[in-house]
Amino acid sequence: MNYQIAAIPGDGIGPEVTKQALRVLLSVGDVFGHTFTIHNYPAGGIAIDETGECLPISTVDGCNVADAVLLGAVGGDKWDSQPRENRPETALLGLRKALGLYANIRPAIMFDELADACPLKPEFVAGGLDLVVVRELTGGIYFGEKGTKQTPMGLAGYDIEIYAEEEVRRIGRVAFEMAMKRDKKVTSVDKANVLESSRLWRRVMEEVALEYPEVVLSHLYVDNAAMQLVIHPKQFDVIVTGNMFGDILSDEASMITGSIGMLPSASLADKGFGLYEPVHGSAPDIAGLNVANPMAAILSVAMMLKYSFGLTEEADSVTSAVKEVLSMGYRTTDLIRTPSDLNEETEQKILGTLEMGSLIAARIKRNI
Question: Is this prediction's pTM over 0.90?
Fold first, then answer.
């Protein structure tokens, strides 16, 4: 098969981790007989520097004709003075809207080899952790009406949270379909005791649940969900929630696993098209130092192979290669919790971005 990939390396460490993820993808192609043709496009801060726009129309056009999109990360202090409509982060919102990416899938899986890096007490995660956050991505407060107005207290800013029934219904179905392939539990997170949009959200979720009688649906307010994630994370299977709550909770869930550098994500449209990216940001303070963890970007490639191309064996080969490298004792610096955790043996196995990507790519070729 021949697949067209739109790569958006972005800013900060984005180009470094994207390069290693594409190296792994090309190794998969070599082993399994696929051709992945890579087309690079700018977005975010680098696009502002090159074109004056955070999201050039040529980038959107390139993504629209691709089979899938791989994104590194965007943003950085350098562009903080840009107006809101041209900030690097606005490029992400623009891509989601332009490409119809309404469902964000963020798995939070704790690899056995990284259990020591988990910040929670061992008894809270004994036996491993495997949950997924399904976040609605093109509605809610991020896309509602916003602006400023004068009030008796001075200038006020406002952002309106709004959800339509069909927006809730389609993300609900994504979550329930995913639960059917897992432990058949969905936790819907809202703030229905305060927000009218959440009351509608809860009502529609209960309607969707009637279509999936095998799945158990429960509800949590977002503040309680945040607490439950750190005191009893293993109770969760699939969490489904709105745009802003999902943004926060998925980052919290990622840190429970030990490092945000290990977590991939998929933003999906209809018919399998998706944009894949690591959960972490651009981290400009470590850009160019060859210390960034590329494994979240590499695992994002595994999600691409699975969700957009239906290549399950190929996806599993990437995940297995990551696990093998970890089981061999290799780490990036973010996976070492404190200096006291270091000893002579582990220090010898700390790898840079390039070396980690090379090792994982080599394991894929070695294992087949």
Answer: no
